[in-house]
């Protein structure tokens, strides 16, 4: 992915890029951004979703992840939850190792079964996606 070299990962050395395709076909990208205060690190997937929402889109059709790890990087639990806000159980997640070219794909429903979403909230905001 074009933005992978922009990943800021001086502490872990794990470079990650992510892209989400919105419903209208527009693609938004992100990279992981680490911090000297380690816990403030943000994953590439959440940066990509935030870029999509910033642009006014609310629905992820599919997500791609590229990392310089030997195996395709599965999205972390926090990123699965964030993706569930804007995707659905069928949303495709494709992950590719930049080191080996190995590719894996999952549906969001298998990565995060029984997701907690706005449907569980008694007073779901009318603006909630989707
Ligand atoms: N990372 C991601 O960008 N996405 C994930 O789903 C898992 C982990 C990043 C965070 C950190 O910068 C590095 O990978 C090692 O955990």
Give average pLDDT, whole number. 96
Quaternary structure classification: single chain
Q: DSSP strand (E) fraction?
A: 15-25%
Beta strands, count: 5
Cofactor: Zn(2+)
Binding site for Zn(2+): 43, 76, 79
Family: Belongs to the cytidine and deoxycytidylate deaminase family.
Function: This enzyme scavenges exogenous and endogenous cytidine and 2'-deoxycytidine for UMP synthesis.
Secondary-structure blueprint:
Blueprint: E1 16-22, E2 27-31, H1 44-54, E3 60-67, H2 77-86, E4 92-97, E5 103-107, H3 108-111
The structure holds tetrahydrodeoxyuridine.
How would you sum up this structure, described in words?
It comes from Pyrodictium occultum. Substrate binds at residues 32-38. The active site is at residue 45. Its EC number is 3.5.4.5. GO terms for molecular function: cytidine deaminase activity; identical protein binding; zinc ion binding. The chain has 130 residues and is α+β, with helices and mostly antiparallel strands. The chain has a single domain (4-113), classed as Cytidine Deaminase, domain 2, CATH 3.40.140. 19% of the residues lie in helices and 24% in strands. It is built from 3 helices and 5 strands. The chain has helices at residues 44-54, 77-86, 108-111; strands at 16-22, 27-31, 60-67, 92-97, 103-107. The chain has a 5-stranded mixed sheet. A hairpin with a 4-residue loop joins strand 1 (16-22) and strand 2 (27-31). The radius of gyration is 15 Å and the shape is globular. The mean pLDDT is 96. The protein binds tetrahydrodeoxyuridine. Residues 9, 12, 14, 16, 32, 34, 41, 43-45, 73, 75-76, 79 line the site of tetrahydrodeoxyuridine. The site of tetrahydrodeoxyuridine has 14 residues, from helix 1.
